[in-house]
UniProtKB/TrEMBL annotation:
<keyword id="KW-0472">Membrane</keyword>
<dbReference type="InterPro" id="IPR050166">
    <property type="entry name" value="ABC_transporter_ATP-bind"/>
</dbReference>
<keyword id="KW-0813">Transport</keyword>
<protein>
    <submittedName>
        <fullName>ABC transporter ATP-binding protein</fullName>
    </submittedName>
</protein>
<keyword id="KW-0547">Nucleotide-binding</keyword>
<dbReference type="InterPro" id="IPR003439">
    <property type="entry name" value="ABC_transporter-like_ATP-bd"/>
</dbReference>
<feature type="domain" description="ABC transporter">
    <location>
        <begin position="10"/>
        <end position="224"/>
    </location>
</feature>
<dbReference type="InterPro" id="IPR017871">
    <property type="entry name" value="ABC_transporter-like_CS"/>
</dbReference>
<dbReference type="Pfam" id="PF00005">
    <property type="entry name" value="ABC_tran"/>
</dbReference>
<keyword id="KW-1278">Translocase</keyword>
<dbReference type="GO" id="GO:0005524">
    <property type="term" value="F:ATP binding"/>
</dbReference>
<keyword id="KW-1003">Cell membrane</keyword>
<keyword id="KW-0067">ATP-binding</keyword>
<dbReference type="InterPro" id="IPR027417">
    <property type="entry name" value="P-loop_NTPase"/>
</dbReference>
<dbReference type="InterPro" id="IPR003593">
    <property type="entry name" value="AAA+_ATPase"/>
</dbReference>
Length: 245
């Protein structure tokens, strides 16, 4: 018999988590294939960050079974760089191999910051800081990236640039990723599959069957956006209703 599970990097089943009497996750099943990007959506407070922290190994109180690769890295909405270390030292953190300097230079070049290794975090813009956080994650060549609203604090233009960067990095590295986002367009642009968390469970799974590179005005995008907004109970704007097919 074929071993179907061999290509899965994440296998979580029956994940449960409560805080006091409040049940936040009530039996969540998530599988992510090697190289697959999955977006996790849901209303505020639905438990997205809670689930991400469990998959990251940052929450030991959860019930259920969780299998994730040791080779994983997390990117949060805030960059969490150490202010007393220069950019290059932040990126190289935890890398003990002899080629750490070269890997740091490569990782910074990949995120477009080849010349900022000597800077202090305080000297960077928000977008640059988040690029460094991504370089710090990538330098470990993770099989799995866990991203919690990674572009959520950025302005619209920076957000678009980071989404394009994510697409390039994904093509170059082939990592699997779980992307927590509030941004419906971002989810459809970047993910192979969308999960909607509601009532403590994965209420909906949607395969995104659109060609790459994706654009918000591509055929099929608007229909998918409307479906997601309905699931998230967000009213579509009057403009959108008029302009979409
Ligand atoms: N450490 C904690 N102690 C108590 N309650 C918590 C804790 N962490 C999360 N919660 C609660 O669990 C629920 C889910 O929180 P979580 O941050 O996972 O939601 P979320 O879907 O990521 O929300 P948002 O989209 O607003 O970031 C919330 O009601 C929150 O108050």
């Amino acid at each position: 018999m074929a071993t179907r599970t061999s290509s899965l990097v994440v296998e979580a089943a029956g994940v449960r988590r409560s805080f006091g009497d409040t049940v936040v996750l009530d039996g969540v099943d998530v599988s992510i294939d090697r190289g697959e990007v999955v977006a996790l959506l849901g209303a505020s407070g639905s438990g997205k960050s809670t689930l991400l922290r469990i998959l990251a190994g940052l929450d030991e109180e959860a019930g259920g079974s969780v299998s994730v690769p040791a080779s994983r890295a997390v990117v949060f909405q805030e960059h969490r760089l150490l202010p007393w270390k220069r950019v290059a030292d932040n990126v190289a953190l935890g890398v003990r191999t002899g080629d750490a300097a070269q890997r740091t230079a490569d990782a910074l070049a990949e995120v477009g910051l080849a010349d900022r290794g000597g800077a202090w975090p305080a000297e960077l813009s928000g977008g640059q800081s988040q690029r460094v956080a991504i370089a710090r994650a990538l330098i470990r060549r993770p099989d799995l990236l866990l991203l919690d609203e990674p572009f959520g604090a950025l302005d619209a233009l920076n957000r678009l640039k980071m989404q394009a960067l994510f697409g390039r990095l994904r093509a170059a590295h082939g990592f699997a990723a779980l992307l927590v986002t509030h941004d419906v367009d971002e989810a459809i642009l970047l993910a192979d599959r969308l999960l909607v968390l509601d009532g403590g469970r994965i209420a909906e799974t949607i395969e995104v069957d659109l060609d790459h590179p994706r654009a918000v005005d591509a055929p099929g995008f608007g229909a998918l956006r409307r479906r997601l907004l309905t699931l998230l109970r967000v009213p579509a704007s009057p403009d959108e209703e008029q302009n979409e097919e």
